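User: Hydrogenase transcriptional regulatory protein hupR1. Structure?
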Amino acid sequence: MTVLFVDDDERVLAMFARTLASRFQVETRSDPAEALELVRKGSVAVAVADLRMPGMDGMEFLARAGELSPNTVKIVLTGHADLESAMAGVNEGRLFRFLTKPCDTQTLVRALEAALEQHRLVTAEKELLRGTLHGCIKVLTEILGQTNPEAFGRAERIKRLARAMAPRLRLKDPWKVELAAMLSQIGCIFIPEEIVQRGSCDGSLSPEELQIYHMHPTVGSQLLSSIPRLEDVREMIRHQEDSLADNPAQPRGARLLKICLDFDALESCLGSKVDAVGRLKQTPERYDPAILEAFERYVLADTGVVPRDIRLAELREGMILGEDLMSETGAMLLAKGLEVNPYSLMRLRNLAKAQKVREPFRVLVPMTGAASRQEDAAGEQAAG
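Assistant: Predicted structure:
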């Protein structure tokens, strides 16, 4: 485990390396920015920084180091004039310890040994929590798979969508979003499977059955209340069916879940990814517009087409109408889903001479492999 010393005085760093190398794995840096790059790699167990450094002082460096590597134990070296600020850092929990300069080797060694032990304790506790978390989730998903295979299958589909979308949206803690998707249907453990089967389309459920079905996010959130570290995941699950119009404070991860869930239900009912996305866009007030746009790009790129808003002059053979093509007076000229061929293109141009076409309108453009990858990259940049 690495002990990192950061000081603008090269002589001090050389002294630390010389006196401590036989006891510890020592790294030294005189530039705090370079030191942060080392911390970013995740190998630093203890970071020791001089309080007074030009540019970035020790407190700022250690604060940034803590953001990059929360498990890194932080120690500050300070002169007597800076004792008050160093003590405040320890009292507020931002620092493990402060050492006054000059610091004798024996005192420094004891402090480093205590810091390394603290690091071992923190990491061991987190590993225990991680193992407990993994075990609890495994048991819950296995129970769901046994009691309600329909809900389990849906959760697996939602998880795949969320896993693909989270990095495209640059969501913070994407593992939490994927976990929320995996556990999104866990409340269905207590719902009859036939209600879950029919619930995805809503239309065939009685009002009483519909009420039961829509309780599952709350039930699922409550089921997870005793599992540590899942507070954010529980919030996403609890709000997964909220409309953005009704809940503007809906967590961003839950906004993605809402789109994934509604898309999955619509695709099951309609049998078409393109139609399912089109139906989502008919009620835009329900969804986060940026997430919906990125989701549409991802889903349609997967089908080999990319959405574009164009004017009539840009319409080409092979394009597919992504919406009903309307005149300015509200008359439908061509139906959504039509693949443009020479005949329909000529017919539309003739119609446009008599009545103005409402522009722009949405089309789906078939893409080659390379072009599809370029469009996907463009969609990721837009979402970020």
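The chain has a mean pLDDT of 85. The beta strands are 2-6, 25-29, 44-50, 73-78, 97-100, 305-310, 320-321, 325-326, 332-334, 361-366.
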